[in-house]
């Protein structure tokens, strides 16, 4: 697997240390339409915050919330599977991740 790094700050000192991200949870820089399997992406503004949302399907909503340090992309296979079962699968990027605005104090 290729290593992708991000910078985080530890609580023991003020220096930053690179930490590897899982390559499977990070979308490639360019994705072919076929890789998205019909997942649509859009930006919505909620309370002044621009949020990136990936979604597919119609029916009752299933909301996918990613953890640290992931993006909506880590749910891509589940989004497709649930949409095929008659659900509307929705996966936003949380604040400060992907295409979603970071908190101002960050």
UniProtKB/TrEMBL annotation:
Keyword check for DNA repair: no
Domain AB hydrolase-1: from-to ranges: 60-105
Keyword Iron-sulfur: no
Enzyme class: hydrolase
Region (Disordered): 1-36
Database matches in InterPro entries: AB_hydrolase_1, AB_hydrolase_fold, Epox_hydrolase-like
Keywords of this entry: Hydrolase
Recorded GO MF terms: epoxide hydrolase activity
Ranges annotated as biased composition (Low complexity): 1-12
Recorded family membership: Belongs to the AB hydrolase superfamily. Epoxide hydrolase family.
Listed name of the protein: Soluble epoxide hydrolase
Originating species: Opuntia streptacantha (Prickly pear cactus)
